[in-house]
Design brief:
Blueprint lengths: L3 H8 L4 E2 L2 H7 L5 E6 L11 H12 L3 E6 L21 H15 L11 E4 L1 H4 L4 H7 L6 H4 L3 H7 L5 H4 L1 H16 L1 E7 L3 H15 L4 E5 L12 E2 L2 E2 L9 H9 L6 H8 L4 H8 L6 H17 L1 H19 L14 E4 L1 H4 L3 E2 H7 L6 H9 L3 E3 L2 E2 L6 E2 L8 E6 L3 E7 L1
Helix pairs in contact: 10-11, 12-15, 12-16, 13-14, 13-15, 15-16, 18-19
Length: 415
Amino acid sequence: MNNIFDVFEKRGFIEQVTDSKLVKDLLQSSISCYIGFDPTAKSLHAGSLLPIMSLMHLQRAGHRPIVLIGGGTALIGDPSGKTEMRPVMTRDKIDENADALKNQLSRFIDFSDGKAILVNNADWLTDLSYIPFLRDIGRHFSVNRMLTAESYKARLETGLNFIEFNYMLLQSYDFWHLFKQYDCQLQIGGNDQWGNILAGADLTRRIEGKIVHGLTLPLLTTSSGIKMGKTHKGAVWLDPELTSPYHYYQYWINQDDRDVERFLSLFTFLPMDEVQRLGTLEGADIREAKTVLAYEATRICHGQKAAEQAGKEAQALFRTDHTSSGKPDAEGSQGPSFTLSQTELEPGIPAFILLEKAGLCQTRGEARRLISQGGGYLNGERIQAFDQTIDLTDLENNSLLLRAGKKRYMRIIVE
């Protein structure tokens, strides 16, 4: 079995590790390791992909992933990376989200025949008695040491309440519990979880006299400074009902050229020599690398059929934008669309209103500025004035193709 630690190092997964040599030695044979996910929504988003990919790599290498849904810890909220307290969620809503996440994660991780384990920490945390917990667990924690953790230091300026202060104890308890129940010897998390992971390893050492380890993943931002999994429209969800496979594909194909090689390494299973080859492409050739990234990332999340369909839709729009006539391609799928009635379009609609109505601009003021700066297109031709009238005479194959900037398209279907 190839040591997954070497794979993680080569592909850029490791930010911090408790002891590189000991963890590498540990991963030489099959072990159980866990990552936790907060059920604060009914779907995870692209910002959760790095931990998911790490679990997939671990399972492929013969290790047993433990996926923890934080149904218990979500009742108080993790202060890590937050400038203010999370909104308090009801138990029913948390349970509903937890069930949805279980189904979603099953698309990435094979839970059959004990190959992976899925647990909800509500099953053990909500039954804890307060006084025994303070006596048996709380006595192992130094308040002075806890306050040095980055997750707490950042919050002290804006206010850290007692409920959130307990989060480190509960996450530490999770690590100890999973060690006892499943011989879990490694916890993986985002780098903002480093203090909590160390606390859990220390608690297990104090109670059991055993050494367990932690490894953190980098907190990713794009080269343009945007947090991974975010766009101008909000989160990029892994649920196809919240973010369609087409728009998911577009999220990846529209990544900054500077990020392509790094994202191919982190979010695909392509061999590293192929990743490096694609990473050397420049100019117009970089689209090949972006297409591979978009296809592979979409295939992993939504399956091969959805990835192929999204690729066809993207290619149809790409051909449209590069044809000599600039007219929409009538063949194949039409990509993202918005429907208008003939009655609405017949009297004509000013271009800036249509861009806003179709969702390509959030406001009419934004649409005016876009068109005035030369960034609005109709059927491949630049829109000349923000109040240019668009009507039935502009139709091609009963549709219009709007474009905002270089990469955002919307096909207007007229019925």
